[in-house]
Amino acid sequence: MKKSQNVLISMLEELLSEKDAVEKKRVLADEYGMIMTAELEGRIQIMCNLSENIEERGIRRERLNAIKRMIKANASKEQIISFGYTEEEYKKAESALYANA
Predict the structure, then answer these.
(1) How far apart are CA 44 and CA 7, in angstroms?
(2) 24-33, long-range: CB < 8 A, 24+ apart
(3) Mean pLDDT of the chain
(4) Which helix (H) or strand (E) is 98 found in, with range?
(5) What is the pLDDT of residues 55-89, one digit of tens each?
(6) I need a labelling partner for 8 at 20 to 30 A (CA). Which of 14, 53, 69, 92 fits?
């Protein structure tokens, strides 16, 4: 993707990229002239953790959606668990599916 001409947007894209925190800090310092104080490094780490948490939530949501689709397709609990899903995920998906019925 082409880098945004808007500096703020470009910096946010950098923070939300898949690079690790060390690389993000390096780019922000080198390309945007940010001075990495302890406070700024802490804030960047929080933002990196936030993007990882958002990704994790999305993955969990999609795993539950996949289980719901399998239940609707008449897959047995044993089959679903044999695909690598947990008992807890199955119960959550089943509860959510039948709560909306």
Answers:
(1) 16
(2) 24/48, 32/7
(3) 91
(4) helix 87-99
(5) 899 999 999 999 999 999 999 999 999 999 999 99
(6) 53
Cβ–Cβ under 8 Å, residues 44 and 24 = yes
Distance CA 93, CA 66 (A): 9
- 57/90 Cα distance (integer angstroms): 16
Q: Which residues contact 40 (CB under 8 A, 6 or more apart)?
A: 34
Cα–Cα distance measured from residue 30 to residue 23, given in angstroms and rounded to the nearest whole number: 10
Give which of 64, 62, 58 is closest to 91, Cα–Cα.
64
Q: How confident is the model at residue 30 (pLDDT cuts 50, 70, 90)?
A: very high
| DSSP states along 35-95 | ---HHHHHHHHHHHHHHHHHHHHHHHHHHHHHHHHHHHTT--HHHHHHTT--HHHHHHHHH
Length of the chain equals 101
- Decide if 48 contacts 41 (C-beta within 8 A): no
Residue 3's closest CA among 31, 25, 29, 23? 31
